[in-house]
Design a protein that fits this description.
Largest sheet: 9 strands, mixed
CATH superfamily: Zn peptidases
Number of helices: 8
CATH architecture: 3-Layer(aba) Sandwich
Number of domains: 1
Helix content: 25-40%
CATH topology: Aminopeptidase
Structural class: alpha/beta
Strand content: 15-25%
CATH class: Alpha Beta
Amino acid sequence: MKSISKKIFSIILIGLVVSCSVSKKAADGKSGKDGVDSAIQNSNTTNTVALSKGEVAALDIKKSMEYLASDELEGRNTGTPGIEKAAVFIEKYLETNNIRPYFETYRDSFNLKDIVGYNIVGVVEGNDPKLKNEYVILGGHYDHIGFGKEVNGDTIANGANDDASGTIAAMEFAKHFAKSKTNKRSILVTLYSAEEMGLKGSAHLAKRLKNEGLDAYTMINFEMIGVPRAADKSMAYMSGYERSNFAKTLNRYAGEEVVGFFPKAKEFNLFMRSDNYPFYKEFNIPAHAISTFDFTNFEYYHHVDDEADKMDYEHMTSFINKMIPALEGMMNASTKEVALGND
């Protein structure tokens, strides 16, 4: 793991399959789909739903994905013409959706020996005179590994799930709040390069923001959310789950268990393997990665077949739309509800 609408009233089909209850016991003995304390009840149904005003559309996600994970970008390796094309695409997206640059331009540049990398950073200002000075950081890495082992003549590692999916999620959240203007706290949308080189981009940005005195409240990194988990699991999971009350807070505002506990996350050291970690180190704040890839539901990690046509756009749309009220509730609380706890 190192390394959403032009017509907002569009009607799409989204399969929402959720369990009757999330209060069952998991393998670790805790309640909840993945062992999370919860008493939230869900109906077991598959619905055809119409988008409400402000929701994200699957076609918008798919359009972004088909470019970011296209062969034209040649796997988006840091320092290549392909990632430059990705950066320009993201900058135009942010500008078109009235998400202004946080710095003088959208780019936060850094050097890795003879390679120049750049994170893309936009801001959606909060609407509360006081709370807007506190920032919620949303991120994902837009780089990938470039080329991989040849399969049937294909050597381009397109990086659709890893991590065009998380990048697009962060972009769609920023677009939603830039249009709805319902966030009291300010939002930084941060897209990183050089994640695949060892979290170099996020480390540079976290240190810069810390040195500039940013009042960072929380950070969420979206890492590989392009494929769904098994029906008996929570929709997503959060790395470092027990380090804070972040997941429980998000689920309370979502009205259901969207983000669960993944028992193997600690075993795989996922908390320290994604772009949330530098923000945790620099700011000592709740900073986590949210993912729907759990090592059992997608076989193309760092593989040339991690392609746009293998992404589940209904799943991605459902995840993003479920997260919107969760994020809004957390962003707009009068106090900083999310806090670090004991691991």
